[in-house]
Every structure is written in C-alpha cells, then in structure tokens.
Amino acid sequence: MANNTGQTLLALLTGAAIGAGIGILYAPEKGTKTRKNISKSAQKAQKELTKQLKETTNSLSSKASAARLSFEDKLEDTISSASHKADDVLKALEDKLEELRKQNSKLQKK
User: Fold this and answer.
1) How many independent structural domains does the chain possess?
2) Domain containing 45: what range?
3) Predicted confidence (pLDDT) per residue in 32-54, tens digit
4) Measured over all CA atoms, what is the biggest interatomic distance in the chain, rounded to whole angstroms?
5) Distance CA 83, CA 76 (A)
6) Is residue 59 a contact partner of residue 2, using CB atoms and an 8 Å limit?
7) In whole angstroms, what is the distance from residue 59 CA to residue 45 CA?
8) What's the predicted TM-score (pTM) here?
9) Hey, which bits of 2-100 come out as E strands?
C-alpha cells in the first residue's frame, strides 16, 4: 500500500512538473525569467520528493522495528514454551527412572 502511495505521489509530482514546464515554456516571458521559473519548479519538486522519501523511509523503518519487536516477543514465547515442555519431559523421565530403580532394587532382593 505504501508502495502504491509513493508511486501515485511520484506520478502526480511528475505530471505537475511537466505541466509547469510546458506552461512556462509557452508563457510570454523572457528566456532568463523562464529558466529561473523552471529552476524554481525543479527545486520545489526536488524538495517535495525528498520530503516524501524521508516520510516513506521513516514509515518503513517504524514498521520494520515493530515487526522485529513482534518477532522477538514471539520467539521468546516459543523458546519459553519449549523450555517448559523440555522440563516436563525431563521430569517424566526422572520419575520413570526412579520407578525402574525401585523395581530393579526389588528384583535384586528376591
């Protein structure tokens, strides 16, 4: 969605720059004044594009940071869950081993 917004904004700015350039070229002014107007329009378009680039970069950076934090939280939960399950398995194995030792002890007494 952000990509479509950026493309739309770029298309609008490009269209505006082309329209402004054509309008200036057909305006009944001297060449020096026309060149100044073209230069001002180009600088304005450059500033707008720079502003949009910064906004898009900040937005993507924020989204990437949020995704990283979410991933870290989910990873931590998964590791914690796996650790608890491993503890449960170890406890069950220790209980079974103790039971087998008792049975072995009884069999050796007989």
Assistant:
1) 1
2) 2-109
3) 887 787 788 889 888 988 898 89
4) 119
5) 10
6) yes
7) 21
8) 0.48
9) none
